[in-house]
Model the fold of this input.
Amino acid sequence: MRRRDFFKNSTLTTLGLGISLHSFSHSSFYDPSGLPQKTPDNNNGLINLSSNENPHEIPPLAKQAIIDAIPFSNRYSFNLPQFKEARKTIAQYYGVGPENILLTSGSAIVLDYTVRYFYKPGANLVTAEPTFFVLPRTAADLGYSLKKIPVDQNRQIDLAGMLNSIDSNTQLIYLVNPNNPTGVALKPGPIKDFLREAAKKSVTLIDEAYLDFLSAPDNESMIPLAAADPNIMVTRTFSKIHGMAGLRIGFVISHADRIRQLEKNYFGESQVAISDLSLAAALASLKDEDHRASVKKKIIAAREYTIQSLKNLNIDAIPSVTNFILFPLGKYEGNFAEFMLTKGIYLRSNTYLGEKFCRVSVGTMEEMQQFIKVMKENWKSA
Ligand SMILES: Cc1ncc(COP(=O)(O)O)c(C=O)c1O
Done:
């Protein structure tokens, strides 16, 4: 077995900030107890590479749309002519009808609601391990038994394994493509084959939060399949490629029958929960393909620089197609994320399938250069 890399400075006694960063699997989108006690502050020079945010600004068109919407903020968006068509506009952009889509305030809420909606005593959830934690966590809290199928040697989701583990109690199948935290994507063909079988047996939700970072033909969405089959749902978000994580816009697409049922249960209020300003920004951003292409190019350049620089340090980062990178920490002892925080870099570390990893989000090129500088100063090969 090859000798592992480890951090020169692995002792946690050197921690200067008194900040505790909880492990990734126990941190939460919503639960502040899972986040560091002292919220990191970018203004203090901390580089935040923890949450797979887009480091680039929203399109100028979207900024202007927010400004233009401010005078109408006293109204609900359903009373504003400029937003009456929002559902239709977004549906049209994705080639489906307005009856196929529900807009939501971010997409994590869809994950949470969906698993609640499908719960029944004895239910199980089939998903991958590791994967994005929100849906499986809610499922576990509700009493689902979890069938987490480990990713394979190449960190690829094991579709055959997932298919084999579906049984008559499987209420939901959750497939994140590209997957978080691995940054690896499945090809569209195998996903379609999987869906053909899986959707006969249970509802499958495909989370395409990061699909926009891929290029054709690998970025083919499962949206058309979802619109045609109540047992297939696709979630998308404006938080990643559109850079609108704080504006909270997402949506779910499925067959009209499924959308109607969801809207009656849990999702009804979600249509009103969306801020006018956020909706204005999202609609404007959809129109700005050029901005999106330029942001994507910058993120890919910073990602490839980071992966190569980690390789130069003998760190075998998992090739990523997203805006984050997962790399193994070998025999590093202690909490790597907490150590990095003492160096001004905020990221996440965790153990997956018995191996320690760090997940770093792709920031600007300058931020990634600083990240690599810190790595160079502290990492050594044993
Ligand atoms: C795979 C995946 N799905 C969904 C989300 C939730 O995004 P949002 O609620 O901002 O749309 C995230 C956020 O990081 C994610 O990684």
